[in-house]
């Protein structure tokens, strides 16, 4: 619990401090005014009448009106006044509670113990008229101000947990194993009475958040023995690879600029028993290589890797260089952060123009639940080709144009729409409606068949130019269903070169990567690179034609000498 203190900026200016002594004197003679201060302990606010607060916290309201005959604070029966002896260091408020729902003190410490909208009312009587006051008998004037306080209940974690039924291995089904309600308050001291769920190593549990109380904005899961060990989001699918018995807990979180922050945790009363797996221990997913290290995943955590290098066969071919041979593995180890990943460092360098396969046979790699890794046949290794030589914000159409003729700029910095007829409607335009990555893409849209138009990329190859060589050029493209376009082209201004893209048979309605290799002489910084659509190349395209471009990439291919 934390006190929310109302600080008067006026008091600070005048050398006053809000405290527990009721010794305030009006500094302005006979001048009458009706005023108050509210704040959050950092910045004071004049005339703030709406507040938000966590339940079981208090707000200090201070009446700084001038020359009132009388004043009165009124609070709901669900609230309590606290006396002036309370300090910021106090966290238990019961000893400071004052009975009653009315107070004539200048300072009113109000404790809120029920959620919902609560009203605190300040009523003052003046001898002279003040703004918005109503005249009473005997020449007195009364004015009333209501303060609305939105009291937030504490978040209250609740969840459901599911396991998979593998009776049909090809079609596993979810089975609920536990419901934790908001009314339950489990204790770790009661662990002997908790329910137990048994799963095999390598199997998953699904955690689903069911918290509603306290207006939560998020959830975090803490999953001992799981992968991952922590997770956010309403649903977490967690794999258990290690043998043993594990527990978990969750947090229900309320956070953000518009709400009072609060996090409440609750242990989940479930013992998770992980047993040895009856499934084979095999390689899974793709095999990849980055910085001369091959990595792949297996269906369980590896207990140890000792002298297993010779059981892997890495075969490398490069037709252009006439290379066709095996490369030795110099070290085999377990990934330091994820024991289901094996990493193989090669004894010789490989190049992004190589084709690589990996096979494994005859070794003794054992999982933590004592399974032996199965052999696997030669498998293609996916190569990380390297970095894009283009400025990625330009190549991803990320920067909106901020000045000039934004229509002719396709609303994108570094581009210009060049068309034979300026009345075409300029089909190229940056959009945030659909994108593969980042926040934007480039859209081509023509209502009645294609029109000949070029999107001129004026910032191509900045800032340092592109050196001579062979490059893997690629786009991510999305063709809307109904698009019947066949092709588009790229044109490098100098040295003059055209890249033709065949898109006729690409699937519609999904993002697809297209790529091809080109060889070029050196390209100077700032050379123009156009994306062009031509009518004569798309003669069968009628009706609405719409497609999106994202993530243009140029990656230099390194030849094997």
Give a verbal description of the structure.
The protein is mainly beta and 561 residues long. It folds into 4 domains: 9-152, Sandwich (Immunoglobulin-like); 159-275, Immunoglobulin-like; 283-383, Immunoglobulin-like, CATH 2.60.40.1130; 392-557, Galactose-binding domain-like (Jelly Rolls, Sandwich). The protein is 2% helix and 47% strand. The protein is built from 2 helices and 42 strands. The strands form 8 sheets. The chain has an 8-stranded mixed β-sheet, with no helix packed on it. β11 and β12 form a beta hairpin. The chain is flat, with a radius of gyration of 35 Å. The two termini are 70 Å apart. The relative contact order is 0.08. The model is unreliable at 1-30 and 39-46 (pLDDT under 50).
Q: Which sequence of strands runs across the widest sheet?
A: 27-26-30-32-23-24-29-28
Could you name the CATH topology of the largest domain?
Answer: Jelly Rolls
CATH A-level architecture of the largest domain: Sandwich
Poorly predicted parts: 1-30, 39-46
CATH superfamily of the largest domain: Galactose-binding domain-like
Class per helix and strand makeup: mainly beta
For the secondary structure, the number of strands is 42
> Strand portion, in percent?
over 45%
Radius of gyration: 35 Å
Number of helices: 2
Main sheet: strands, sense, barrel: 8 strands, mixed
Helicity range: under 10%
